[in-house]
Amino acid sequence: MTAPEPTIVATSGGHRAGTRTRVLFDALVHHAVDLAGVHGRRPRVLYVGTAIGDAEHVAARMSEAARVAGFDLMPLHLFPMPNVEDVEATVLDHDVVWVMGGSVANLLAVWRVHGLDAIMRRAWRAGVVLAGVSAGSICWFQGGATDSFGPELRPVTDGLGLLPYGNGVHYDSDPGRRPLIHRLVADGTLPTAHCTDDGVGLVYRGTELVEAVAELPDRGAYVVRREGERAVEERMVPRLLPSPGF
């Protein structure tokens, strides 16, 4: 079972603190799984933690979150080597790919060394729902604003380009991101950018933005376009998703 057309869910959220577990999958992850259209079995989620160096403690927390949610989760590790014999077959065998945040610059470099950039493109075309948070959002776009290189935010412009836009994450919680996205769009470094407050996700069918959704109330999504030599921002009101019951 796969999504009926190429689908991406690009977010600044998806996780929340648990009680018996450190992390739970919040509504944005559940929505990505719903979009995969799985029926009659447990959804298969591939967790990709490249952006945080395949930290094993985080993978363990994701596995616990999946157990609580009723998903079958497998981590795909690339450090110190791929943990599966056939990376492409493994990706294609899952319903959803969930990419963790961290360093988007390092993620892109390591994925390209292993050919995972091309594999993700083929999986997207095959109907595997591609999703993620922060670096796991920016990677699907042309680029965005990143702290991959140090505390001072800098542009990254060599994203996978499945979506022909720029991407801004943590738009409300990191005060440096909005002005940098505006500057990069205004000077043409980035094309029109789609941005999310914390707890918000953007749903794409093919390359078309079809909906903004949220797991937290009173948050926004934004489209930043270039007009002349300046950037103009339009706010979108996301649809509030139901909270998962645990």
Would you kindly provide a written description of the structure presented here, covering whatever features stand out?
With 246 residues, the protein is an alpha/beta fold. It has seven helices and 16 strands. The strands form three sheets. The protein has an eight-stranded mixed beta sheet with strand order 5-4-6-7-1-12-13-16, with helices on both faces. Strands 9-8-10-11-14-15 form a six-stranded mixed beta sheet. It has a two-stranded antiparallel sheet with strand order 2-3. Strand 2 and strand 3 form a beta hairpin.
List the helices and strands and how they pair.
Blueprint: E1 7-11, E2 15-17, E3 23-25, H1 27-35, E4 44-48, H2 56-69, E5 72-76, H3 87-92, E6 96-99, H4 104-113, H5 116-126, E7 129-133, H6 135-138, E8 143-146, E9 154-156, E10 166-168, H7 177-186, E11 193-196, E12 200-205, E13 208-214, E14 221-227, E15 230-236, E16 239-240
Parallel strand pairs: 1-7, 4-5, 4-6, 6-7, 8-10, 10-11, 13-16
Antiparallel strand pairs: 1-12, 2-3, 8-9, 11-14, 12-13, 14-15
Which regions have little confidence, pLDDT < 50, spanning 5+ residues?
none
Strand % is 25-35%
Biggest sheet overview? 8 strands, mixed
| Order of strands in the sheet with most strands | 5-4-6-7-1-12-13-16
The number of distinct β-strands equals: 16
Structural class: alpha/beta
Distance between the termini: 25 Å
The succession of helices and strands, N to C, reads EEEHEHEHEHHEHEEEHEEEEEE
Rg estimate, integer Å: 17 Å
Helix percentage: 25-40%
Shape: globular
- Tally of alpha and pi helices: 7
**Average pLDDT over all residues:** 97
